[in-house]
Amino acid sequence: MRQRDVIDLVLLAALWGASFLFIRVAAPQFGAFALMALRTGIGALVLLPFLLREKGGVAELRSHVGPIAWIGLLSSALPFVMFGYAIQHLNAGFTSILNATTPFWGAIVAYLWLGDRLGAMRVLGLAIGFGGVLVLVWGRVSFAEGGSGLPILATLVATLSYGLASIAAKKHLGGVGALAGAAGSQLSATLMLAPLAIVWWPAQPPDPRAWASAVLLGVLCSGLAYLLFFRLIARIGSTRTITVTFLIPVFAMLWGVLFLGESITARMLAGAATILAGTALTTGLVDPWHRLAALRRKAGPSAGPPPG
Questions:
Q1: Structural contact between residues 233 and 241, judged by C-beta atoms closer than 8 angstroms
Q2: Chain centroid to CA 39
Q3: CA 80, CA 95: separation in Å to the nearest integer?
Q4: How far apart are CA 236 and CA 70, in angstroms?
Q5: Residue of 162, 183, 226 whose CA lies nearest to 65
Q6: Per residue in 92-122, pLDDT tens?
Q7: 0.85 cut: is pTM over it?
Q8: d(CA 235, CA 265)
Q9: CA distance 74 to 79
Q10: pLDDT-derived band of residue 306, with 50, 70 and 90 as boundaries?
């Protein structure tokens, strides 16, 4: 990758890692529905001018409005609200680590829905990744009042929704431009969330810090981050771009420590390492069997065992 691509990848991870910080600050005052309606609405306002400048972009959005709205529900409205609820009860770093399970759900949904093959390495990656989830949540799952069971479950529902969205987009929006899909999904999510935001708008006005977090969440973590994401896909491909998954928890934990006074525990580090190792295998970013076979081909016949 070129230096510019590496910088964009790190910046994207920093922005998406910061989303957990902004939600942690703003969600207790706004509530999940109002905050996420603001996030998607502001994100749409950032993206729409770029769509209007793109030739045929608006026409493309109109001709695929149904599938784009469906993707807006799965990729934004539902998971954002789940995170908005969960992060009020879990710290930002912990939640970001659970967020790294998204590729696992994508692989499972692709297998069940599209019939994609799950090779031995991908199955191993799924097992390792979900083992990491168990390490992370072991002893913390309680559905009693004040327990973290429901917030953890909400986070996993959000990541499952992201996995569904990725496969639905592949199936139904294969010919749709990335910018039309991104702007349209944010706009449709806003329309879905707006009535709920009106009903559950906070009775106590949020303070300036919460408002600043909400605006930054929309501008940086939805608008700018989507532009970076699709620019990276265009330049370096989706396989390399998905490596951002490995960096998001790093930044989320860093921002949590610096700005929220959160602590990073040994269990969080162990869970993160295990989940990300599983992610590498599940997404094919690391394939030891393929690499071993390539080394054997390169070495030639002499690499095999001696005769006799």
A1: yes
A2: 15
A3: 12
A4: 27
A5: 183
A6: 999 999 999 888 888 898 889 888 888 888 8
A7: yes
A8: 37
A9: 7
A10: very low
